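S1.2 Input.
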Amino acid sequence: MKYEWRSTRVRCLDDQGQRIGEIGWHMIDDDQTYVIERTWVDPNHRGTAIAAEMTKKLLDKITTENKKFIPLCSFTEHFLDKAPQYRKAAYYPHDEEEF
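S1.3 Output.
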């Protein structure tokens, strides 16, 4: 498998270069926070841990960059239950006090 990184997504490609998975996001806070919006895996490849592998790679990138992320994607949120070490980079705006 190969990963193709773009400014707002990472794609997982098979050996023939076909897209078999993708995670999409947008940036906020002067490009300091990733808002992870979606995870998609081709139906023929579901259940093969592609989504988990892509998520791990993205969260490793985010933590290496010392940035934060908002997990709007339900897969990403559930992934954090299995990999709590990434929670320190998670940002939940609704947890802040409102003034």
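S1.4 Remarks. Strands lie at 2-5, 9-13, 19-28, 33-41, 68-71.
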